[in-house]
Design a protein that fits this description.
This protein is mainly alpha-helical. The protein has one domain: Hydantoin permease (Orthogonal Bundle). It has 19 helices and no strands. Helix 6 (108-140) runs antiparallel to helix 13, helix 8 (169-194) runs antiparallel to helix 13 and helix 15 packs antiparallel against helix 16. The longest helix is centred in the first third of the chain and has 33 residues, at 108-140. It is globular, with a radius of gyration of 22 Å. The model is unreliable at 1-9 and 477-485 (pLDDT under 50).
Length: 485
């Protein structure tokens, strides 16, 4: 492409051909409220309910956990909204826009790490859907959740995810609204049926320390909004350039934050009802929550699970295809999405049918890559705030001889420092991966409840952003960028 913007004719009923190319003004459309449905569908499932019990397990009582959830959601999802604002300003995915902060070639390392992370999470989504099918079918009838039925469910989920991801933005925007509504109805019915049967103990319980409380906030941030930062611009780049930034940020943050936040709060409330449920959810969130429902509700519950993991997987798959292009793979977007879909299937088959215990190791790997992804996000957001208020030079984003150059060492160095510090302050349950984590933690802290909150993710995020701000302070001008094309 070498600085040229390829024009693509828009047909909203066919496969989207546009990849990381800049979206010209004449092809932009829609209202910022569309952001709500995409991000709500991506987060509306039973998994956040289980996550709420994990927040309590850190060592907080129920009211501390609820406060930590509200603060963590309130801090993390506006960051996703800020990345969405960048998408509208630049008309391109976040990993393409990050070339302004890292250089056209320098951005390939963080982009590669982000790609591994996104492909990993879409794989986990599909695998969890298949494993949930096994659990629910066994509850319906022992022996029903055999290999054949699980394979069928896996195929349905994977196919739905790939079809949506390959079709792209326009189809995902239309479909996600209905997926959100269906899943929301089933979730509400589940709560209406289950909650009256439980006995809640709101006497307070033992409160955690201030440090543990701060760790709970970090845990919420890491498991919610921070995980979506790399995809924040992918669904806002088609919005008209003059769309108010506050509305983009607000609808994006509300779609993910309100939806996921309410479900996590329900999980916190459930933690007061049954200690056995707390332990069960920690091992199998979907299966444990299904055990609370009456038999007649299991089929709608399973359908809702399949829909929700498909919706989340499609958002990830669409983004991973764009990220693969941003690395430098010169293939059409539908092809890169298809490639990632094949990798998703291979990984999912391995988790579900070959080595189910591999899931814990795999999620530990995703945590480690998440440290680097958070450090990238900090540099990107500071660069957006300090240097891109007037937009991006879109031609220069794909030109190694342009104003962004090959490498921006301030961005690269800031990310590397934040990543190293972050890895030193997180822990891994897997012995093989533990050798590259926790090396900055004192011996007494490494085995404490605080260690599992993985403070390094947020501390690495803050350090990378602060360092980049200091290193680039002199280059800030009132209007550094002239918006092109």
């Amino acid at each position: 492409m070498n600085g040229e913007t390829r024009m693509v004719t828009v047909d909203r009923s066919s496969v989207e051909q546009r990849g990381i190319e800049h979206v010209p003004d004449e092809e932009r459309y829609g209202a910022p409220s569309r952001q709500f449905w995409v991000w709500s569908a991506a987060n509306l499932s039973m998994l956040p309910v289980g996550y709420g019990l994990l927040v309590v397990a850190v060592g907080l009582n129920w009211w501390q956990a609820m406060l930590a959830v509200v603060i963590g959601i309130g801090l993390s999802y506006p960051l996703v909204g800020a990345v969405a604002v960048a998408g509208t300003r630049g008309g391109a995915p976040a990993m393409m826009l990050s070339r302004a902060a890292f250089g056209v070639l320098g951005s390939r390392l963080p982009t590669l790490i982000t790609w591994l992370t996104v492909v990993g999470w879409e794989t986990v989504s599909v695998a969890l859907g298949a494993l949930a099918t096994r659990t629910v079918l066994e509850r319906l009838s022992p022996g029903l959740g055999g290999t054949a039925m699980v394979a069928l469910a896996f195929a349905v989920i994977a196919l739905g995810t790939i079809v949506l991801g390959v079709y792209g933005y326009h189809v995902i925007q239309r479909v996600q609204r209905w997926l959100t509504l269906i899943t929301a109805v089933v979730t509400v019915v589940y709560l209406i049926v289950v909650l009256p049967r439980l006995h809640f103990d709101l006497s307070g319980g033992r409160a955690g320390s201030v440090v543990i409380f701060l760790g709970g906030i970090v845990l919420v941030m890491a498991g919610t909004g921070l995980g979506w930062l790399a995809a924040g611009a992918d669904y806002s780049r088609y919005l008209p350039r003059n769309t108010p930034s506050r509305r983009i940020l607000g609808w994006t943050a509300a779609g993910g934050g309100v939806t996921q936040g309410l479900l996590v709060l329900v999980g916190v409330l459930l933690s007061t009802s049954d200690p056995v449920l707390v332990a069960a959810v920690a091992k199998d969130p979907i299966g444990a929550l299904a055990a609370q429902a009456p038999t007649w509700f299991l089929v709608p519950y399973l359908i809702s699970v399949i829909i929700s993991v498909t919706a989340a997987g499609a958002v990830d798959l669409y983004s991973s295809g764009l990220v693969l292009q941003a690395i430098g793979v010169r293939l059409p977007r539908p092809v890169t999405a298809g490639i990632d879909g094949v990798l998703m299937i291979i990984g999912g088959v391995y988790i579900v049918f070959v080595a189910p215990t591999f899931a814990g190791v795999f999620i530990a790997f995703l945590l480690i890559t998440g440290v680097a992804a958070s450090a990238w996000a900090a540099v990107f957001l500071v660069d957006l705030w300090m240097h891109r208020r007037d937009g991006y030079d879109t031609a220069a984003l794909d030109d190694v001889n342009g104003r962004y150059g090959r490498f921006n060492w301030a961005g690269i160095g800031s990310m590397v420092v934040g990543t190293v510090v972050g890895l030193g302050l997180v822990t891994s349950a897997d012995a093989h991966l533990a050798v590259i984590t926790g090396f900055l933690l004192p011996a007494g802290v490494a085995n404490s409840p605080l260690a599992i909150t993985n403070l390094g993710i947020v501390l690495g995020f803050l350090l990378s952003g602060l360092l980049y701000a200091v290193l680039t302070l002199r280059t800030r001008t009132a209007a550094q960028e002239a918006v092109a094309g």
